[in-house]
Amino acid sequence: MTAFNKKIILEDGSEYLGYGFGADRDVVAEIVFNTSMAGYQEIISDPSYTDQAIVMSYPLIGNYGITDEDFESKMLNLGALIVREVNDNPSNFRFTRTLSELLEEADVPGIYGIDTRKLVRSIRDHGSRKVLVTGIDTSLEEGLKILKETELRHDAVSRCSCKKKWYSRTSNPKYNVVAIDCGMKMNIVRELNSHGCNVTVVPYRTSADEILKMKPDGLFISNGPGDPEDVPEVIETLKALKGKLPMFGICLGHQLIALSHGAKTYKLKFGHRGGNHPVKDIATGKIEITSQNHSYAVDDSTVEGTGLKVSHINLLDKTVEGLASEDGYTFSVQYHPESAPGPQDSTYLFDRFIEKMSLFRANK
Q1: Strand 175-181 versus strand 218-221 pairing type
Q2: Are 81 and 60 in contact (CB under 8 A)?
Q3: In 10 A of CB 23, how many CB atoms?
Q4: For the chain, which end, N or C, has fewer CB atoms within 10 Å of the first or last residue's CB respectively?
Q5: Average pLDDT of the residues of the chain
Q6: What is the pLDDT of residue 253?
Q7: Residue 9 CB: number of other CB atoms within 10 A?
Q8: Residue 129: DSSP 8-state
Q9: Active-site positions?
Q10: Sign (positive or negative) of CA dihedral 303, 304, 307, 309
Q11: Which of helix, strand or coil describes residue 224?
Q12: What is the pLDDT of residues 69-125, one digit of tens each?
């Protein structure tokens, strides 16, 4: 048997031994798990995973390779990838490189061969926390010292957001949407385009006045990484635009809408990540199977009196999954209706955004 050459060390002193792939370097990151059975390329290219070490609960990763058309971002900002088994001989006529090759190009370390079932249970029971991905020769004492002395960063959105505005136009457009980029997935832009929207994507620091000068029909606030309180600039922009435009927020955008109205957020023990979370629409009673990726949630006890009401709840832990404003023009969801590669239960929310913009335009 080939000797282990990599390992991970957690803050509680536990170690998991394995083999390295991708970039050969040490990294400290926040460890999280994802329960999706497919879509590893979309997952690792989702900016919401910035600085996180992703543990894939599905045991075989890499078997269909990497395809140029399937990226959710041009950058890979994840901290590391942790899997049970990696397949570097993919069977897929579309693949252009292997998972290992992509991680090596992006300078992202990977480790395979560990007991991911045990590791996922540890994260579930003890919560997300710092992890060190390192060489086999790093002692436990040295690793714990590195973990203690390394602070996780709080500037993830500034690193993920675009640096200048850019455009994504569609044929026969009916609406113009400004999208605040906090680390946006590309499938959101594709969905807006497919619903007849020209999209102007702007950096997260863009002011309310700059947005209004673009004369949009609606404002979209994207997903993104980290604590929503780390981006007060967006919160202030949303406060200034309240009631002036229809707004639709997804994931981090949902949390930022809540904060801009006066509600509070908190960090979940291990977050929600995967394509199998049941969510109930309170108004209709319909149950949606959703794709999720977040560490923070809106505190339902702080929503009353903010001008918002809870529209969706998570059936697993009863957390807030959606909000809607009393004026009818602002709404948000914690999950990803644009989910790529799926499920597709929630794409109707883009139709709802179109309806809000149409109604707002008619009543101007």
Answers
A1: parallel
A2: no
A3: 17
A4: N
A5: 96
A6: 98
A7: 24
A8: E
A9: 251, 336, 338
A10: positive
A11: coil
A12: 999 998 899 999 999 999 999 999 999 999 999 999 999 999 999 999 999 999 999
Residue 86 structure tokens: 């990696």
Those residues with Cβ within 8 angstroms of residue 342's Cβ, 6 or more apart along the chain or in another chain: 38, 39, 275, 291
Q: Which amino acid is at 61?
A: I
* Distance separating alpha carbons of residues 274 and 205, to the nearest angstrom: 29
- Our measurement of the distance from residue 277's CA atom to the centroid of its chain's CA atoms, rounded to an integer in Å, reads 15
State pLDDT tens for residues 160-197. Answer: 999 999 999 999 999 999 999 999 999 999 999 999 99
Query: Which of 276, 254, 279 has the alpha carbon at shortest distance from 265?
Result: 254
Q: Are strands 6-10 and 85-86 parallel, antiparallel or unpaired?
A: unpaired
β-pair type (60-61, 80-83): unpaired
Going by C-alpha positions, the residue among 227, 228, 204, 283 that lies closest to residue 219 is 204
Cβ atoms of 44 and 81 within 8 Å: the answer is yes
SS3 17: strand
Q: Which residues contact 15 (CB under 8 A, 6 or more apart)?
A: 7, 8, 9, 140, 143
For 315, counting Cβ atoms within 10 Å of its Cβ (0-12 exposed, 13-18 middle, 19+ buried), the class is: middle
Residue whose token pair is 């139709």: 351
